[in-house]
Amino acid sequence: MTIDLLSFLFGVLTALAVVIVFERFWGKFFGNRRIRELERQMARLRQTLKKKDDLIVKSLKSLEKENKDEQSD
Fold first, then answer.
1. Is residue 57 within 8 Å of 64, Cβ to Cβ?
2. 38-45 long-range CB contacts below 8 Å, 24 or more apart?
3. Is 73 a residue whose pLDDT tops 90?
4. Range of 13's domain?
């Protein structure tokens, strides 16, 4: 009787562990629409931030160039 109970408990714990691992690694593909939506939004925000940073760098370089041109005149 105890071997049956131990086998049952071992099976339940193993199944639970497999479910947790499966949900952790594959849950993005088979469910969790909200997580996928948030990840897409995060990617869009990162792209927007990168574009903004690039524009800031570009404007600073153009300002430096204008200042050098004005000083040389």
1. no
2. none
3. no
4. 2-72
Dihedral of CA atoms 52, 57, 59, 61 in degrees, nearest 10, equals: -170
Cα separation, 46 vs 58, whole angstroms: 18
The three-point CA angle 9-14-7 to 5° equals 30
What's the whole-model pTM score? Answer: 0.52
Which of these, 33, 8, 30, lies nearest to 19 by C-alpha position? 30
- How far apart are the C-alpha atoms of 26 and 19, rounded to whole Å? 10
> Does position 57 have pLDDT exceeding 80, yes or no?
yes
Domain count, the chain: 1
